[in-house]
Amino acid sequence: DGWLRYAPLPCSGHCHSSLPSSIAVLNATETSPVYVAGTELQNGLKGVYGKHVKVSHTKCKSSSLVVGTLDQYREHCGPVHGVPELEEDGFWLNTKGKNVQIIGQNEKGALYGTFEYLSMLAQGNFTKVSYASNPAANIRWVNQWDNMDGSIERGFGGPSIFFEKNRTVEDLTRVREYARLLASVRINAVVINNVNANPIILTPENLDGVAQIADVFRPYGIQVGLSLNFASPQTFGGLSTFDPLDASVIEWWSKITAQIYERVPDMAGYLVKADSEGQPGPQTYNRTLADAANLFAKEVKPYGGIVMYRAFVYNQLDENVWTDDRAKAAVDFFKKLDGEFDDNVVIQIKYGPIDFQVREPASPLFANLPKTSMAIELQVTQEYLGQQSHLVYVAPLWKEIFDTDLRVDHKPSLVRDIMTGKRFNRKLGGSAAVVNVGTNTTWLGSHLSMSNLYAYGRLAWNPADDAEEVLKDWIRLTFGLDRKVVDTITRMSMESWPAYEQYSGNLGIQTLTDILYTHYGPNPASQDNNGWGQWTRADHTSIGMDRTVSNGTGYSGQYPEEVAAMYENIETTPDNLLLWFHHVNYTHRLKSGKTVIQHFYDAHYTGAETAQTFLTQWESLHGKIDTERFNHVRRFLDYQGGHSIVWRDAINDFYYNLSGIPDEAKRVGHH
Ligand code: GCW
């Protein structure tokens, strides 16, 4: 149930009389989101306050709560008063009047409003409110990297809930539960198969299965999308080519698209990873990435679908070349194509230019596509961030990216306003997060990681929301209202990303985790001497990537003037991105006055110390959390405390051995 547990709360004071006793649901069709809203209300009120409420479909006037769309309201209940203009998927929640009104611009909106109301009640909040809430963006997607054999790439919560043995699964119970969770945080589409896509998703049997999955998601207002393998016409369709401009290829994709939409008339669209990490793409035929994106865009357009085309395109590089830089790849590939993408193409851009690292500057691509729709790509699954074995609340990281001002044309240009489409007046925009839930009962593999999924949904709806406030809602819904529980989990969570950064990759070194195989645990040597381009360029005397225009890779020049100037100059580059932009001696002094190497040593101690407090903080909650969850979380935090020491010593020893510079506090090399 995640945060939708509807755990019992005591009903005190006017509680019972403030709760609705009868509900009018303005749509009697069982598969409609408004109907689902009614069921959810019934279950919620029963679960939280033990109150049984009757549901009717027409008795508008005599019910104490009405849920429906604006149109349904007018039809069944008469004119609506005081509701401001609602945007697509928006809702109006009014608990001030005689009866509670939950009115959506559409059915989805009504369901979202219902979950909002239930979230208040489940947090014991009886404040009288009346307000409208509208989404900041229309793309609020999640991606699952589920393989057809049931494994999940970078998934840490067990096998797929969608696929097994190259087929879609029969029992869709978990799919329905996932739909419920996602709808409650206003996610409106899910791509169910891995971006490293297997063409057999397109067999008739599997498309029938996709249709069944879509049927389960639909009542929750969630559309299904599919990842495509660019070479499918050849490897799966038997054509001699997959050239995106070849007539037979275009016809093949038309047929496939028609077969899909016949089964899933509201399919959200396609997600495409091409010319990336060995995936086939248009470059095989010297076609542009826009040729590829537009091929699919034209196919899904008549059905109202969109194409999410991933910006994650880069080549293997040579570290001996000082100016080679993977961080430059996205702008190099895409900037020149700005304006050439069809209007239902959205470029899906990872938040930073490399790959979900613990610290990256915002991708400069956001500043370079004013005539193209964009969405940001985030990860809920903690691929590089401890893989759910470490507590890392990631929302504060996302917020730093959202709030970065890229100063395009010397005007305020927050990433959040670019990605939502606001800054450049694009109709489409928003976000996609790689979630990778599995069949594990905790969904992601660990209870505390669910704060990231919850926060993702909340911030997809409103990226201006506060990460800590969102977290507190999640804690209350998940673990109850006890003050100490809320304060403790808040503190641990808010400390977690900074701590993880301190012991796994500080000063903008991006990450020191193993990048070659597992993406887990310390391996500072793995960054260099290979073609992946996640280099630290560490040697005996110095470290960091010189990404300046004057002396380095030129990456800083991909940002608009003001931002470029800030990063170009070592004096104005923030310490937490120093080694991202500059190559310096270990003895270089930071703004704090410390040398780089001493900061490394100290930060690894501080980060590990903080991580070691998580267990004791958690243990102070003994008796306040059910034994099962208490022990499950306890085991992870115990492990994290130990692993943070492994991290600390592995990294500190590595740089001590490399630089030969002693630790002023005489810890490193002496333990
Ligand atoms: O982060 C890297 C991962 C790959 C992933 C790729 C991508 C799905 O290591 O596992 O492939 O990024 O985002 O496409």
UniProtKB/TrEMBL annotation:
It comes from Penicillium bovifimosum. The gene is aguA. Alpha-glucuronidase involved in the hydrolysis of xylan, a major structural heterogeneous polysaccharide found in plant biomass representing the second most abundant polysaccharide in the biosphere, after cellulose. Releases 4-O-methylglucuronic acid from xylan. The active site is at E277 (proton donor), D355 (proton acceptor), E383 (proton acceptor). The chain holds residues 20 to 690 of 834 of the full protein. It comes from the Eukaryota. The keyword Electron transport does not apply. Keywords: Carbohydrate metabolism, Glycosidase, Hydrolase, Polysaccharide degradation, Signal, Xylan degradation. It is an enzyme of class 3 (hydrolase). GO terms for molecular function: alpha-glucuronidase activity. This is Alpha-glucuronidase. GO terms for biological process: xylan catabolic process. Residues 445-667 form the Glycosyl hydrolase family 67 C-terminal domain.
